[in-house]
Structure formats: C-alpha cells, structure tokens
Amino acid sequence: MKRRKFCYFCENRIVTPDYKDERILRRFVNERGKIIPRRISGNCAAHQRKLTNAIKRARIMAIMAFESESFR
C-alpha cells in the first residue's frame, strides 16, 4: 500500500513559499537541479504553482543554481 503524501506547506501552515529561503526550496529540487513534480512531492496544486515561481525567482536572483556543478 502506498502512503498518502501531504502538502508540506499546508501541514506547516506556510501560506507562500519564500524565494529567499533556500533551505526549504532545496527540498523540492532534485540533485540535477530540476523541480520535483507535484505527484512525487505531494504538494497541493496551489502551493506547487507558488513553489515553482519561488524557485525560478531564486534562480534568477542567484540564490539557487540552475543546475548542479557535477553534471556539466
């Protein structure tokens, strides 16, 4: 039996993921730098959209890398 996945942001009552908080954003990016899809992360649709925008903003502001250094 598969375990039901819960939205990290709904559980912790976080309204909007902050693009400046790299520690939380890194949870939802795999080792190659790709954003983990909703079906794997367990996020709800609204928070997944906000998370995607936050990760993209962090990349543009150079808080996060676009890709991992080891895969170049």
Short note summarizing the structure:
The chain is mainly α and 72 residues long. Helix content is 40%, strand content 0%.
What report would you give on this structure?
This protein has 72 residues and is mainly α. The chain has a single domain, classed as Ribosomal protein S18 (30s Ribosomal Protein S18). It contains 4 helices and no strands. The longest helix is centred in the C-terminal third of the chain and has 16 residues, at 45-60. The chain is globular.
- Tell me which oligomeric state these chains represent: single chain
Regarding CATH, which class?
A: Few Secondary Structures
CATH architecture: Irregular
Structural class: mainly alpha
Question: Cα-atom Rg, whole angstroms?
Answer: 13 Å
Topology:
Layout: H1 8-11, H2 22-26, H3 38-41, H4 45-60
Question: Which key terms come to mind for this protein?
Answer:
72 residues, mainly alpha, 30s Ribosomal Protein S18, 0% strand, globular
